[in-house]
pyridoxal kinase
Amino acid sequence: MVKKILTIAGSDSLSGGGLQTDLATFTTMGMAGFAVISSIVLIKDNKVRIDPVPIDIFQAQLDSVEQVERFSAIKVGLLQSPEQIEVVANFLKDFIGPVVIDPVLSFKEGKTELNHDVLKAYREKLLPLATVVTPNLKEGMLLLNDEKREAPKSRNGVLVMASDLSHLLRCSVYLKAGKGIQEGQYTDVLIDESNHGVVLHYDALDDAFNHGSGCVLAASMACFLADNMDLKEASRAAADFTRHAIVHSYSLKRHAEDGNAFPNWRVQTWN
């Protein structure tokens, strides 16, 4: 039986993330992907423009996918307002199954204005419904809401930060700490709801060709959880899957200085 999986996310016409990347990941993992669009994201000249879908249309999409008898997992990405967050929280409250939430609060392609009411709604209404939340270091700092706190610079510091996030958000946390913790390597940390920690290290790859890698990680983790892996196994498998997506990355044009992670690497064909 084909497993069905839902993404609630923004649309990126350049496929550097968002629902395009999520659906590609689901397909590679052999699952039927469904999508609810939260916003239209336009990226050009290192500027990001986000146009949220009107709340009535957003709600109507969620009402529509209730026709699906059962989703094996749900992945949540970009949400742009407290109203959108509340609508998604109401949709998820009776869902029985894995929920992976990637709180998109920053863009490497450019700055966007951050609404602090959005952060509050994430913390209080949505993230406690997650099986696991997958922030990067900057997003984790924003969610902690501690202006006096400095970003961690050691493995122990990252573990403490992830533990504090898990306690605050009342869910497991997969914190993408990046390459500033150990030279030549990326460091990620998983803290589950029992406060058990796992540190993942892997060799650093070219940063310029990893657009969408955060979406690939969260989407693949949702798939692995849908396949009944435990969270620790799913996290390691998702990190490995994402690494391959970066290795097989592609540019939008010749001689470009950056590019997208390629979640379809498992089914890639060569000319």
